[in-house]
Structures are given as structure tokens and as C-alpha cells.
Amino acid sequence: MGELAVSAAPDEELVSMGLGSCVGVALIDRERAVAGLAHVMLPVANAAYSAPAKFADRAVPSLLAGVERLGARRPAIVAVLAGGAQMFGGDRAAARVAGLDLGARNEAAVRAALADAGIPVRATATGGGRGRTVRVLVGEAAITVKEAGGVELPLWRPGVAADDLVEIS
Amino acid sequence: MNVQYDEQQLDALRELASIGSGTAATALAQMLGRPVELAVPRALALPLADALDAVGEPDAMVASVVMPVGGDAEIVVLLLFSYRCAASLCEQLGVEPRSELGDSALGEIGNILGASAVGALAQMTGLALEPEPPHVLYDMLGAIVASVLSATAGELDVALVLDAELSVEEAACGLSFLLLPTAGGVAELLGRLGLGAEG
Q: Chain A neighbours among B 82-141 (CB < 8 Å)?
């Protein structure tokens, strides 16, 4: 939560378990098997210091710098997003807990930061009202997602259009 | 932004956790007509990433009741049960688990536990605390807890977790009772106990 990890080790997996309104941002170099994953909690930072990936506007540049340090090259880097759910339904009390549409605002902030960096978003499993676990298989440059109560499904892998993968609501 | 609580403040917060969860345990015992045991309450000030791990396995599916509290201090009351425990509580109350009635029974348990704990805190601190209607949710523990902590921690990188384990005798049912105050909420609570930042 609020942290990020990068890896170029083929047998490694990067995992964010139990994403609710948080957004898991995966950056992956399609050709070099370098990947990174950040667990973003809130859209925009206005504090001096914070956990490295807590805020979308800081997490994306940090994650990008991290994968580039491991040899990822900008034109081959794509982004995959999971999470950003509205966990507590639409009722008034719930909105007081998690803020109105915190999940959607997190996703929008992540997308804006990626657009600023020129990184395309290739697949998403976002929105809805359920938690998710996202897993990045570094060696295969592949990403899976599991929704609460569901099974693990492929979300993205290199060379396969997102449309050809199992539809994830 | 970083914040630190000293030992004296954490002791006072642990005392609040103890009184809040003790009151909640008594309320649950009355509701079920069974003894409820309370395990040592904790007051933890942890970096966000560690706070989630301290609560439980992020991937685990749990039943939860979330109850926001407004007024002079903002706190979220959170109850986490295993599915088995949620089902067992519903059965003891004579309703079908995972049904509309079952969910409203769980919500009612949350309401009674949360309101009694919050009432005890209000009495102890003199703060006006207003519990709002509870929300029942079945999901991954991490998704529930992290979503609440995102809101309560706000700009802070430290989450304050006040929690206790309640177990219902004869039902092999354990539940976690958590009080998650915002940073402002903690300051209000400590201020009323004479342990505020200004002394």
C-alpha cells in the first residue's frame, strides 16, 4: 500500500493484493521483460513527504524512472491498470468513508500522469465495486487479475490484443 | 507528511481502544446471549504499508461492516469477520446468511457494537460523536481496509489502528473490531485527554 517495486528478474512476480479504491499501476517493457508495479492510494500529493507511490502524480514518474533504471526503453513501455473500485457503494455514509468516487479519481489521476509521460494504457480491470489482486509475471511480461470471489484471469500479455483476452468487467 | 505519537499518547489511545472494544464486547454478548471474550486491545501507529499487514491477510475474503463516525472527531468503525463467523452469527440470530436479512443483521451487529463503543469514547472524552448508518460488504480484506485507510490517513504516511479481537464462546467465531481515526480525529481525542500536541 503506497509502495512500488520494479524487477528485471525473469522468475519474479510483483503482486498487489486486495486493491479496492487503490489503483495498481503496472508498467511493462514488452521486449525486455522489465516490469514495475505501484500501489496508488490517492490522486494528488500536496504534502512534502510521502510513501513513494501513495499519490498518482508522484507514483507514475517514480515507477517509470525505476523501470528505466533496469533497462526498460520508453517506446516499448506500456501500462496496465487494475483497481479503482467504489468499495462502499453509492450511499451517503459510504461516500464519507472513502470519499466520493475515490477509485475513479485515482484512475483518472493515474491516466493523466501516464498521458503526460506518453505511456499508453493497454489493458484495464478498473471500476466496479469489488476488490482485486493484480500479479505481474516479470519473465513473461504478462499480467493477471483476480476479482474478489473470482478466479485469476489473464489481463495482458505481449503480442495479444486486450480484446482477445477474457473480458473482465 | 510524517507524524509521531509518543508512548504516553499511545498508552492513552490503547486505553480508548480497550474501553471502546470492551463496551462493544459487552453489547455483543447481550445481543447474542453468549459470553464474548476480548483479546488484548492494541494501539498501533504504523507506516501505511505495514498497517494493512498488521490487520490481516490482504487477499483473504472477509465479511465486514463499515460505520463512519462524524461530529467532533472523524473515525471509521470497522468490523471484520470470517465468512464462517458471519454465517454463524446470522444463524444465532435466526436469519439466513448472505441474504438481505442476513446482511441487515450483520449491519445491526455493526451498528450496536460501533454505537456502543463510540458512545463510550464520547463519554470519556466529552466529544460529540455521531455514528452514521453501517454498510455491509463482502470482499478482500486488503481492498476494504486500504480503501478506508486511504481516506482516514489522507496526507499522513502513518496510520493509527486501534483494534481488538472479540471471540464468541461456543460459536468458534472471532471478529476484529477496529477504530480508524483520521489524523484530525486522533488530535481531537488526544487533546481531550490532555495529551495534545500543545501539551
A: 132-135, 137-141
Say if CB B136 and CB A141 are below 8 A apart. no
pTM for the model: 0.91
How many other CB atoms sit within 10 Å of the CB of residue B54? 13
Q: Is A51 in Cβ contact with B138 (below 8 Å)? A: no
Cα B106 from Cα B104, distance rounded (Å): 5
A3 touching chain B per CB within 8 A: yes
Question: CA-to-CA distance for B25 and B40, rounded, in angstroms?
Answer: 12
Is B198 inside a domain boundary?
no
Q: Any idea where the domains of chain A sit in the sequence?
A: 4-164
What's the rounded Cα separation, in Å, for the pair A45 and A57?
7
Phi, psi of B75 (to 5 degrees): -140, 145
Mean pLDDT, to the nearest integer, of B118-136?
Answer: 93
In angstroms, the Cα distances linking B147 to A30, A42, A99, B183 are 31, 10, 9, 16
Provide the grid cell at A145.
Answer: 487479475
Place of cell 468487467: A169
What is the number of domains present in chain B?
1
Is B199 a member of any domain?
Answer: no
Tell me yes or no: is domain A4-164 CATH 3.30.1330.200. Answer: yes
> What ipTM was estimated for this complex?
0.88
Q: Do A96 and B132 touch (CB under 8 A)?
A: yes
Distance CA B54, CA A69 (A): 32
Residue of A nearest to B181 (CA): A97
Q: Smallest CA–CA separation between B87 and chain A, in Å?
A: 16
What pLDDT, in 10s, does the model give residues A62-71?
999 999 999 9
Candidates B112, B179, B115; CA nearest to B152 is B179
Among A134-138, B1-5, B183-187, the least confident range: B1-5
Element (H, E) at A17: strand A13-19
pLDDT tens figures, A92-107: 555 666 566 889 999 9
Q: Which domain holds residue B34?
A: 7-192
Predicted confidence (pLDDT) at residue A169 exceeds the cutoff of 50: no
